[in-house]
Amino acid sequence: MSAEATDPGAPLRKRGRSRIDLRRLGRVALLGPVPRDRLPDAIGHVAEAHRAHYPDADLAILREAYVLAESSHRGQMRKSGEPYITHPLAVTLILAELGAETTTLTASLLHDTVEDTEVTLDQVREEFGDEVCYLVDGVTKLEKVDYGAAAEPETFRKMLVATGNDVRVMSIKLADRLHNMRTLGVMRPEKQARIAKVTRDVLIPLAERLGVQALKTELEDLVFAILHPEEYERTQALLAAWSGAQDPLTEIADSVTSTLREAGINATVRIRPRHVVSVHRVRSKRGEMRGTDFGRLLVLVGEDADCYAVLGELHTCFTPVISEFKDFIAAPKFNLYQSLHTAVVGPDGAVAEVLIRTHRMHKVAEAGVVALGNPYTQDGTTTAHQPEPADGERADPTRPGWLSRLLDWQEAATDSDTFWATLRADLAQDREITVFRTDGGTLGLPAGASCVDAAYAQYGDEAHGCIGARVNGRLATLSTVLNDGDTVQLLLIHDASSGPSPEWLDHARTPGARIAITTWLDAHPDGMPGPHRSRPEAPRPQDRPADDPPAGRGRAGGGAPSVAVGAPGAQVRLAGCCTPVPPDGIIGFTVRGGAVAVHREECPAVARMREVGRTAVEARWNDPGDWSGTADYRVTLVAESFGRPRLLADLTEAIATADAAIVSATVEPPSEQRVRHTYTLQLPDAAGLPGLMRAMRDVPGVYDVSRAQQPAAAG
After folding, report:
1. Bridge-partner residues for 444, per DSSP?
2. SS3 for 342?
3. pTM for the whole thing?
4. Active-site residue 115, yes or no?
5. What is residue 123's three-state secondary structure?
6. How many whole angstroms separate alpha carbon 598 and alpha carbon 374?
7. What is the pLDDT of residues 336-350, one digit of tens each?
8. What is the distance between the alpha carbons of residues 402 and 66, in angstroms, rounded to a whole number?
């Protein structure tokens, strides 16, 4: 059986939640059948909690489910000596208080019947329909999963796929674990510790990702009490010491209430106490606790616009702590959470954290996916029994983004061990950031994620062709770590031969990215030729003339464009450092031997010549009609690009298509996935230079082409 023994003295309960009297329920559960027109007393708590969320709910199906569950579990006892039926009743009450719809509550009452009694899935389907049967079957499969370090990965993988197809399955499992944790006290200490560790490592992160904060926080406190009893007792003592003191948040709450009333904003202001683990974290971070650290203010309003109106009033009438402001309404968290977070300074200088949300947001913040009702109907209510689609996948409009990504990961993972390892790593992430796409969408990523993760989150396997990114408008390497609120634009090439570099794994944090990269690398063990795998061998540079390093190679006589200089009879050389061509603005300097080296006016060598006292010589291009028809023009271009396979081949093809000849070329070693190519080219016509540079810029991966401004590396 799945449920653990009862500990009537278990100290932890979520504040404001009524405790079930298990002994009383045990007695009423054994009183025998009741008339069909009357609800059994044993589920009165459930009916009351359910009607609070669904006033018009039909409770007849709950009665039928209870009767079947009680009769099938009759004679089975928990280790505390209580009738076993008290466990599904308690689990169902937890879900009813969170706002679960009728179908979920029905399945919750029956969740252990197929595993622990003679009831079959066919019987459940016949009496309650396909929807309830689907949920009971999913929970039954979860009960067979060992979540520990030795968990069989394929079983866990199947379990999560079932969860992804209907989040209500995991909702029931989480409520089941919460009740078992509440009643864990009579188990052996070593078994308590084992169950607590599994809850901490797997189920609490899943509760966080499904947005069920009410379950998550209570599970955290229960686990904390078992695994860290001394720290738990110290924190409890700290809470007890402050409980008798005057709460400084009360005065601030009154001021906030008055401020909003005067502004005409209809709002409810509450003081929201921190739970035990939250207080422990604050104390560990800040050291000495302040009175306002034991809780936060919660402001509830009717509409989204009212949230921002409240924020404006608070920031106007109080001193805000700007660093504490976060907008999870415009950019909801990955688990559906929406709220405005801020902090203000009270009259006595105390800082109070404030949460601002609508009543609907608050319900979802507490209950997550449980509060969304039946995800397969438009209004969240229970409908007629719906058969499972043939492919097993069901369109769930409320499924959190993380859960949707999980289904993609398991499909892409080559084996269960890979999926299990990456999933556990992802569950260990306790903070997520939101980055904005240039098309207006958002991406939810774990803290520490890089552009590699963003690429695979947005494009899936197409990200294999990613060659770089722009972060907040500036070029960035794929290894760049993203921050919350960054805007990222991924630069892709659509080339089937492109693939990720093994180094990408050093920067990938998400399971989706790591699985996709690993799968591609395993399928291509020899890799592909490209700048990030092997450095292309450049043609051998020609020897540089020794007469004047700044001037580079001179070009005079037949074939050179005609240049007139203010030194009659002097030999003219076009400087190789900037390779001027018509119609560049030019200037000359006399060098050794009386020759005149002609530079582009913006060449850095010009400034250096003037600094050392060289006299400038006037220079200009002769009229085009005076140029030789066989003249050619030499120019040095620098192409800067992101590394990728076939980049060198594509650049040289673009150059050849423009009828330019490569005199020499160098390719510098890649640096942070960027590659710098320097080409000295010979053009048949200077007028073709702008077109050549455009053609080179159009090569995928090239983000800039410019004229050389330093001494050429070759030629």
Report:
1. 434
2. strand
3. 0.63
4. yes
5. helix
6. 79
7. 789 999 999 977 788
8. 34
